[in-house]
Design goal:
The protein is of the alpha+beta class and 636 residues long. It has 23 helices and 20 strands. Helices cover 47% and strands 11% of the residues. The protein starts with 9 loop residues before the first helix and ends with a strand.
């Protein structure tokens, strides 16, 4: 047993019995590398990662490999979900030096924490050879490694003062890139693997242009009907390995479920098609059944592997389906694609032929599947991902008028304290930018769904924390300014499987700044957006979250600002004064009936101490105005 046995991370615990002398990231391990004059082997992964398991079984459980590592290296194991700062910094290095990146991430470092060689999964024979070569070079030619390190350019960003593109040009370039990369036949982006990237398709819907809407709706439907979606237990897998979306990488991540709830809710808002509404309810059922805790928060992920094999829980034998369903097998084939020779190593990943599978058929398949060995659950409670799911539930609760969804969102948020916010529940790592961002967005979504001022006040407080601790001169940093543990402070601009903290903060500050009329927040958003443009033209789809903020910058996005008399109740509409023609129930009905994704409503009481800051006159108790930026018109 090594030093990981005292760690709380399920991923680190998976390696606690390896013969490798693993140590967690920290001063003890880094100082030991200096003291013993050894290079560091850094291995980064996560509990639900299939290829992490493969490398563990092949190499980290091998006495031969362990002997080489223990003799020549200080071996450090990091859970990327606990430490996104470490993961992001070194995966950026891997991407820049090898042209690719992923997990497991394998990086060799000097004791000063600077990397000099990186890769991802290495087969055992290759890994052994690499270890022996690096250990020999370290012993005999260490100065060459140090020269390589000094010549390398790491993650430093220079603030850009280049000319700003016109806002309309930015929107046009983004749409053009979507058209160029769209897979007309299979939907989504061309090629494989295919990730759901919900934020990209939600962005297209919000442009309110029919061609864009069609691409997004077609992609959302394709995801729901294909093998990337678990047709029996519901929820979306992490990504599809094929261009048709049918063969998934089987892990299920909490953040993907959050994104799918948001995307399918947005699809319903545009179409009012209950196909999308029902999909949200399916994902809700899956989340409550598999990932929700008694405290109302959610676990992080479900593993890809079970019973020693990838996807074993999810795939089917043709013969077993024939035997189990007997005379009903033709009904099964009527609704599902069931290739006789399989589509995944001789097994079958189910996808739908059409919408409307009878519940009795789903339940029969589920009952059959429940007898199998289930994949393990990563029981970390990650602040960022829980706040993402809270935001999505609040959003769905608002537009589906679903009290259960709103209750789930509220219950999640009750578990997080702005004043002592941590990355996870069990390891008191200070919260990162992304944790604060999604907490702020969750509060804002709950305010939009309920108009309870406490949520808005907390959202504003989070924005100010981000501005004070994580923002400097146009850049949002992943860690607080005085808590960087990598050679340079980590900045993650581009979106990945979900929006980055950088791009998300740009959108959050634009949205909140517009809602409450805070020019400071808007200026921060615009200044950070300028920095994005350095990379935007190379790959616009990596920045759709930031680009969405453009709709708050340009003229024409309206904010309806309503102040009601303090003795009026939100929900007792018969007692409303005649001036309040925009009463609570009517507002709710209008928001559902009309699709206006960037329209916002500020709804506060006349006894609110911040009323003047929000642009309301001191001499009135009821007041309604419509604002576009600083220009407001009174509604009579």
């Amino acid at each position: 047993m090594n030093r990981l046995n005292k760690e709380n991370s399920p991923y680190l615990q998976q390696h606690a019995n390896n013969p490798v002398n693993w140590m967690p990231w920290g001063e003890e391990a880094l100082n030991l590398a200096k003291k013993e004059n050894k290079p560091i082997f850094l291995s980064v992964g996560y509990a639900a990662c299939h290829w992490c398991h493969v490398m563990a079984h092949e190499s980290f459980e091998s006495e031969t490999i362990a002997e080489i590592l223990n003799k020549n290296f200080i071996a450090i194991k990091v859970d990327r979900e606990e430490r996104p700062d470490i993961d992001s910094y070194y995966i950026d290095y891997c991407q820049k030096t090898t042209g690719g990146a992923g997990w497991p991430l394998s990086v060799f470092l000097h004791s000063n924490r600077k990397p000099f060689f990186a890769g991802t999964y290495f087969p055992k024979t290759s890994f052994k050879s690499i270890l022996l070569q690096i250990s020999e070079i370290w012993r005999s030619e260490k100065e060459k490694i140090e020269q390589v390190i000094e010549q390398q350019s790491f993650m430093s960003y220079q603030t850009s003062n280049s000319k700003m593109l016109e806002y309309q040009d930015i929107l046009s370039k983004t749409e053009e890139f979507f058209y160029k990369t769209f897979d007309v036949l299979n939907k989504g982006s061309k090629g494989a693997p295919k990730f759901p990237v919900f934020h990209e398709w939600s962005y297209l819907l919000r442009t309110q242009k029919q061609n864009n809407i069609d691409m997004a709706l077609e992609t959302a439907k394709k995801i729901r009907l294909s093998g990337i979606y678990d047709q029996i237990g519901f929820g979306v897998h992490r990504y599809a390995t094929d261009k048709e979306w049918n063969i998934p990488h089987f892990e299920k991540m909490l953040y993907d479920q959050a994104g799918m709830i948001e995307l399918f809710t947005e699809c319903w808002r545009v179409t009012k098609d209950d196909f999308f509404k029902n999909t949200v309810e399916e994902i809700n059922q899956f989340l409550k059944r598999e990932l929700q805790t008694p405290n109302g928060v959610f676990y992080s992920a479900i593993d890809a592997d079970s019973n020693g094999s990838e996807g074993d829980f999810y795939v089917w034998d043709y013969e077993e389906l024939e035997i189990f369903f007997k005379s009903d097998f033709n009904i099964l084939e009527e609704h599902f694609y069931i290739p006789k020779n399989g589509n995944f190593d001789g097994k079958i990943v189910l996808s739908l032929k059409k919408i409307g599978v009878p519940n009795s058929l789903i339940e029969k398949l589920k009952l059959f599947r429940e007898k199998r060995v289930k994949p393990s659950i990563d029981t970390k409670i990650i602040t960022e991902w829980n706040c993402m799911i809270a935001k999505s539930y609040a959003y769905a609760g608002l537009y589906f008028d679903n009290a259960e969804y709103l209750h789930i969102a509220k219950k999640i948020i009750e578990n997080f304290d702005i004043d002592s916010l941590y990355r996870t529940d069990s390891n008191k790592i200070p919260a990162f930018l992304d944790d604060y961002l999604y907490l702020g967005e969750a509060y804002l979504a709950l305010y939009e769904a309920t108009f309870l001022y406490d949520y808005l006040e907390k959202s504003i407080k989070v924005a100010n924390i981000i501005a004070d601790r994580f923002y400097d001169n146009g850049l949002f940093y992943l860690t607080e300014k005085d808590k960087t543990e990598t050679p340079e402070a980590t900045i993650v601009m581009h979106d990945g499987a979900y929006p980055s903290g950088f791009n998300g903060s740009i959108r959050f500050f634009a949205k909140l700044g517009t809602l409450i009329g805070d020019l400071k927040l808007l200026d921060i958003s615009k200044n950070a957006f300028k920095q994005v443009l350095q990379e935007f033209e190379r790959y616009p789809l990596g920045y759709t979250t930031a680009v969405e903020s453009v709709y708050y910058f340009i003229e024409g996005v309206e904010t309806l600002k309503i102040m009601f008399e303090s003795d009026d109740s939100y929900f007792e509409t018969p007692n409303k004064k005649e001036i309040d023609i925009f009463n609570f129930e009517k507002i709710k009905q209008n928001r559902v009936q009309y699709y206006n994704p960037f329209h916002q409503i500020l709804y506060i009481s006349s006894d609110n101490p911040n009323r003047a800051n929000f642009g309301f006159p001191e001499n009135k108790n009821s007041f309604t105005q419509i604002c576009t930026h600083e220009n407001c018109q009174i509604v009579i």
